[in-house]
Amino acid sequence: MVTLAACGDDKDDSSKASDSASPSTPEAAPSPKIVDGPVPAITAGTKFGQKPTVAKGSGDPSKDLAVKTVIAGGGKLVAENDYIQAHYLGQVWDSAKVFANSYDAKTTALVPLAQGQIYEGWRYGLVGKKVGSRVQMAVPPTWGYGTEGNAQAGIKGTDTLVFVVDIQDTFSTKSSAKGSEVAQDNVDLPKVGTNTDGKAPSIEIPKTDPPKKLVANYVIEGDGDELAAENSVLVQYKGVQWDTGKEFDSTYANKQLTSFSLQQVVKGWSQGLTGKKVGSRVLIVIPPDLGYGDNPPQGSGIAKGATLVFTVDILAKM
Question: Is 80 exceeded by the pLDDT of residue 26?
């Protein structure tokens, strides 16, 4: 989680759905052999995006990772370390007890397919699948919660977990805003590049005094949902100081997307992004009183009293 610029602390907030989908395994698991079954039958909610009802497992589950593409999508390929946006349901093989699902919460999970960030079974089972696919997996303990299980969720260290995952979208470090360019005709404000190739856009600072009030303007206006103050977001961003133009933080330079709650960032970010549409690129100019003021994070390179300038691509929300 990047957070010199965006965050007031180092916590990465996620919805309950995402929390359930994001255990860290006790230690790195060996690469599994992937087989196509057995997996229990889906008896209702059989269409993509519908909450599925899944039968109890019959007989013994495989000791290998069972992965079945129930519905084949035609979208982008999912790659390792991508963030995927998905609806999912998880239950225990032996009992069919549902321990987590995002359908009832009506909020998709947004999780990175990176080691230690998600079930290893997801990391191995979903890479190479396409957006629009429904994937069912039977995940042995080795690639689930390990031998310790998860007592809070009622999962024993011997339980095989069954998942149905509807892959809604996938995002990588090459992801960018997508939408309509908006005129940048105020010569007293920074001008932001409009490239959408996944590379960091340029920021040209004018030779004028910075504004005293918050600026949050579209550079590219997307057509997605508007962000609410309580949402978490997935973004690409770059931050520079107005006075020097010097970059102090960037997901592009770090080669890692970042997600955070709008309730856990400096006021300039939360106020500037609330109401903006998913898919957009936004110029945010944050005066000191809505940024870090005289207490910038130690080691951040941000000067006391600095006005901060960001270009932010809003990729997804939770």
Answer: no
